Amino acid sequence: KIAHRLNYQYKIVTLDGELINYGGAVTGGKFFVKSAITEKLALEQNLKDLQANDDQIQKLENKINEIDNQYQQQEENLMQKKQIMYSLENKENHFLESIQQNQEEITNIEEEIKRLNNQQTLDEAEAAMMEKYAHAKKEKDNIVHKINELREKRDQIEEKLNQQDAEYRLKNKELHDKQAKIKELEIEQNRLDVKLENLLAYLSNEYQMTFEYAQNNYHLEDEEDKVREEVNSLKEKLAKIGFVNQNAPKEWESVNQRYEFLTKQKEDLQTSANNLLTTIKELDETMEKEFKKVFKQINYNFGSVFNELFQGGEAKLELTEPNDFQKTAINIKAQPPGKKLTSINLLSGGEKALTAICLLFAILKTKPVSFCVFDEIEAALDENNVTIFGEYLKKMETKTQFIIITHKKKTMEYVDLLYGITMQERGISKLVSVKLADLN
């Protein structure tokens, strides 16, 4: 519609890629996957997605750096606590050694006390020993209490270390997940970069414009769904129109001239066909009229000749379809003397042959010809019927000259000129002729 309103003075590109050139020629279209405007919209969306992915990647990298710092700090704290724990263990070992020494000393003192008790003597050494014993026992109790405190503190530190180790493992898993997510986003970013480069190259090669130019000069004014619906409707119309041929006017003139010529030829042929049909109809009517006339005469002559040759009886011809002479067949019905009227197929061989001879004579009587050739037509007749046949030939010879091929001697008696083939010498045929009229 836009191209039509602009008188096809500008190039126009549809959303599906049809390119309407100057003058109205349309290229591309149905089999083009995406239009430049659709690619532009997809390109803008891809740029937005790419920017969002970059922001997300930056956030993830910041989060990873924060986790790394926390992890490093926790490792430092863990090292400090381990050092404290090692120090406490050394002190514990030292105290245990001191306790062992004091225990040995106490054992010695106790033995000394026992010895002194056995002696039932208390002197200044005993008093000193008792004082020393009391002091050592008190120091032992203090060391045992301190060891218990250190053990409790060690257990607390180990529990805290276990908690921190579990937290460390969890953070480490989250770190691996984030790194995998970053790799996926990097792959997606690379794919979008390649797609973006391809789209920009297509925009540049196909439409000779940059993305910034297309973004500034081409905007989707209506809603996308409405525009797509209109595009689909235009696609259907273009599909119905088909390929636009710029040479269509010239081709139309050529085809129109041929059409007018063929139309005139068709009219002439139709007129000739109508004339031929009229002529054929007239001929059919004339032939039908003539056929009925001749058939009636032959039928009459057939009955007359049959009665004469059979010396009685009757015969006739019947049409199987009297109203359609072009499709009709002819039935021969004959009734020799002393028999019922029946079809010729129920007669004997001699009666069939004589009936056929009657029909031939009836036709010759209706339409005489100059000469007629008979080839052993009387072969199935007996002597009596051969005589009847020969006598009737004599009646017909005034109008028709007959040439007869026969082996019947009786038939030969009724001819004027006789020709015979003989072989007096082996392999050599000889023609013999006899003019019976001179002999008579």
Tell me the radius of gyration: 69 Å
General form: elongated
Overall pLDDT score: 79
**Helix/strand structural class:** mainly alpha
Please give the alpha-carbon distance between the first and last residues.
112 Å
Secondary-structure element order, as H and E?
HEEEHHHHHEEEHEHEHEEH
Helix content: 55-70%
| Secondary structure tally, helices | 10
For the largest beta sheet, what order do the strands appear in spatially?
Answer: 1-2-3
How many β strands by DSSP? 10
The parts where pLDDT drops under 50 for at least 5 residues are none
Protein architecture, described:
With 440 residues, this protein is mostly helical. It is built from ten helices and ten strands. The strands form four sheets. Strands 1-2-3 form a three-stranded antiparallel β-sheet, with no helix packed on it. A three-stranded antiparallel β-sheet has the order 4-5-6. A two-stranded parallel sheet has the order 7-8. A hairpin with a 6-residue loop joins strand 5 and strand 6. Helix 2 runs antiparallel to helix 3 and helix 6 packs across helix 7. The longest helix is centred in the first third of the chain and has 84 residues. The radius of gyration is 69 Å and the shape is elongated. The mean pLDDT is 79.
Q: What's the helix and strand layout?
A:
Elements: H1 2-5, E1 12-13, E2 19-20, E3 26-27, H2 36-119, H3 124-207, H4 211-217, H5 224-241, H6 248-309, E4 314-319, E5 330-335, E6 342-343, H7 349-366, E7 371-375, H8 383-396, E8 401-405, H9 409-412, E9 417-425, E10 428-435, H10 436-439
Parallel strand pairs: 7-8
Antiparallel strand pairs: 1-2, 2-3, 4-5, 5-6, 9-10
